[in-house]
Amino acid sequence: MRISAADFEMGNVGWVHQAILEVVPEEEAVDESELRSAYESVDEEGKPSFEEVMEHLSGRLIERNIGGRNFYIRRKAWLSSGEVAKRLGVSLRTVQAWGQRGVLGAQYMGDRLRFAAENVEEWVRGKRSGIAFDQSDRPAVSQVWDNEEDAKYDRL
Question: Has residue 70 got a pLDDT over 90?
Answer without folding.
Answer: yes
